[in-house]
């Protein structure tokens, strides 16, 4: 493990010598992640991007991509675009990235089941803000907004999210 890795521990998410309280999926940690199970997948996941709402915040890093109206994330394993960002209108099941609430104002993307998605293996494992302390996600890692904003500009292309068994 490197100092630039994000490492999930029972005490929180460790990064850059600091510990951040976090939440995980309602399904706990799983080595057998499936679409809709609410689990956070075990493994070493590369950080592959950052998305942000430019109408709500400044760009957190030079390589962050703005979330535009109509940006969605496919979670329908029947579609060839499963587990990728897509645009509305979109006829398959999806998550809206540009939400009315602030949950996805800043999203760190992992390479879980990407770029070549296996149907049904699970989609959209992000690091984003939590709803509140202790409230589980649908499989993502949730952080306090201030902690997420501190971490995002410090991530590098070599950063990994490590979720041990």
Q: Which segments are poorly predicted (pLDDT under 50) over 5 or more consecutive residues?
A: none
Question: What is the strand content?
Answer: 25-35%
Residues in helices, as a percent range? under 10%
Assembly category: single chain
Largest sheet composition? 10 strands, mixed
Shape designation: globular
What's the helix-strand series? EEEEEEEEEEEEEEHE
Q: What does the average pLDDT come to?
A: 96
**How many DSSP-defined strands?**
15
Structure class = mainly beta
Distance between the termini: 15 Å
Rounded to the nearest angstrom, the radius of gyration is 15 Å
**Count of helical segments?**
1
What brief labels describe this structure?
3-stranded antiparallel β-sheet, mainly beta, single chain, about 160 residues
Report on this model:
The two termini are 15 Å apart. Strands 1, 2, 3, 4, 7, 8, 12, 13, 14 and 15 form a ten-stranded mixed beta sheet that branches. The chain has a three-stranded antiparallel beta sheet with strand order 10-9-11, with no helix packed on it. Strands 5-6 form a two-stranded parallel sheet. The longest helix has 7 residues, at 145-151. The protein is globular and about 45 Å long. It has one helix at 145-151, and strands at 6-9, 12-15, 18-20, 22-23, 29-30, 40-41, 43-52, 65-66, 71-74, 85-87, 94-96, 106-110, 126-129, 141-143, 160-163. The model has no long low-confidence stretch (mean pLDDT 96). By secondary structure, the protein is mainly β. It contains one helix and 15 strands; from the N terminus they run ββββββββββββββαβ.
């Amino acid at each position: 493990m490197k100092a630039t890795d994000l490492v999930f521990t029972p005490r929180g998410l460790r990064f850059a010598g600091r510990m951040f309280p976090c939440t995980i999926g309602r399904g706990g940690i799983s080595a057998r992640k499936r679409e809709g199970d609410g689990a956070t997948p075990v493994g070493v996941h590369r950080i592959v991007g950052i998305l942000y709402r430019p109408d709500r915040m400044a760009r957190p890093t030079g390589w962050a991509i703005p979330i535009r109206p109509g940006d969605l994330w496919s979670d329908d394993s029947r579609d060839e675009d499963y587990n990728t960002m897509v645009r509305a209108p979109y006829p398959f099941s999806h998550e809206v990235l540009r939400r009315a609430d602030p949950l996805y104002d800043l999203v760190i993307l992992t390479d879980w089941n990407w770029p070549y998605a296996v149907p049904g293996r699970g989609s959209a494992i992000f690091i984003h803000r939590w709803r509140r302390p202790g409230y589980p996600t649908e499989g993502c890692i949730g952080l306090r907004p201030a902690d997420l904003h501190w971490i995002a500009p410090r991530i590098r292309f070599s950063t990994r999210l490590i979720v041990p068994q």
